[in-house]
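Two entries, shown back to back:
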Amino acid sequence: MSVDVIIPSLIPVIIFIVSVTYRVYRKHRNKFKVNFLSENNRKMVDEAMTFYVNNMPPEDRIPPKHLKNSIYSKYTAKSKKSFKKGVLKKNEVHLALLAIKNGRICGFLKAIYIPKRNYVFIAYLISVSKENVESSFVTSKLVNAFLECVSETKMVDFILFEIVEGEKSKAKERLFKHIAGNMGFTCKRIDTKYFVPEICSFDEGDCEFYDSKLFYIPVLDKATKFTKKQYFTIIKSIYRDIYLESYRVSEPQLVKDYRVFTEMILDEIEDYTEKMFEERKNRKIDLI
């Protein structure tokens, strides 16, 4: 058979192969997925930083360079297995998850395991609607993936996260409780005063702090109420091991000022809690 005959006969086969390959590629590309974010994919890290800056309010942001450095650190989990391994070794472990639709980022969750107190804190959760995918769906998929990672360690006592009071805070609370419930977890609001401190550089005066709610998801720990000592152990850890630590890494010259700022917030929370105890004649903090 001559070349002139072979080549035309192969053309339909080549077209078929290319067509099938393209359909498979499109199906894979269009599929919604949640991936671990790590230094293994530097292009995706850069895209994640852009997404973070564009969608996180300035007062809630840490410097993007610091966030990027934390993702590049050896303590950032690259998979469920590496997250579990870090927790078992009692290392501080950072967990960064991306929600992706059509090859574009539509959600980002960043959490930190604090070994001293054996809990995981959700530092950031950003979700946006993308094409036919609602932001609530993105949130649900990110939180599901996160809860799977935590539960598979069989080591973590509890999970904490914050919601700043605002127009959509009740809706966020309902969504989180719904997602946690579907995964077999309970999500409780710690029923006392809590503030989220602003991430600021003190160049425009004092930092601000925002009325917020702190939420507790038990994993191994099954507390139904907190004593004042238990509650203050938790919030001191949040302020010192998470907020203050971010300054220690990114802006060490501001650590002293930020420590004074967070201690002032702690004093205010303590005063409120004492008044609440007097009014209720009950020295336990409810989880509701």
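entry 2 starts here
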Amino acid sequence: MYSTVWKGEDYIVNSLCRLLKQLGIRRKYIMLLLLRSPFDALRTWMQAGLLKAVFYCIETEEAGRLPGLCIWAGLLCAAFFLYNGTIWGIYASFAARTEARLLKEMTARIMSLPYNRVHGQRSGEWLTKLNSDIQATVAMMNGPLNIPHAVTAFVNTVLASVLMLKGSPGLLGLTWLFMLPYLLFNYRLVLKRLPALREESRYAMADVTSLVKPLVADAEAVWLYDAGGLLLHKCEEHSRRLMRTNLKMALRMGLSDMLSRLLGIGGYLAVLLTGLEMTRNGTMAFSDVVSCFQIRGAILAGMSMLIVSASNIKANSVSAMKAKHALEK
């Protein structure tokens, strides 16, 4: 039985899979994600191995091996970036075609609805479906710091943890000791509340759009019936509601960022002092400590990217669910 913590995430994943299947791109999308995911993990392995080898050569006074190590690392890095650039070029083309197809499908769906159904909703709702909802859906599927980067960050974090476990289980445990409180705090403060706040912001924006349109398109009728003051007052109320909702989201993200920096610095100092003590005691070579620091940076970068991506996915999933339901109706 799934825990209640993951029910929302399961619903998002299942809904996204149905949307991808409905568009006929599920297999290709998953394949591109899998082809992209190993890059950061391989780069972490290469950088950690290079630093360890360089400092080992310095410790053992074998500086003559350094040019060969640098050439090997340069060639390997060029191969990694060539592979990554090729995959992202294919992915960019796929993302553009997906956005065009989704917009075409949504427009065709709206045009096929009966007259009473179209006029039964405010114009702001339809504008939101055609613009904000589709843009958010495409951003969640293909945009920066969304699903593609979340998959990459997860793979990178797992591999980096395995590499650090082989180097020093104690330093790995110390790293995660400072990371876990941040993950728990971020989930409760940001991830659980962000979808509801984004939904409230979406409805507030639709209300503002619906009220602004008659002020511009039907200005004469508004003036004739002396309704300008009322519409402006309503528009101001919904604008303030939109501002308060966006401020709540910004405040939560700011607190999350502050905690990330505090725990990151604390963890860095703890690992630094522990590594220094292990080096003095002779239980760990200096080259191994440097390698663990490089891997720790990859773990922190991967987790930070994963958390930001999860927040963006949660926020954009609201609009993605609206787009999916609109296409299914």
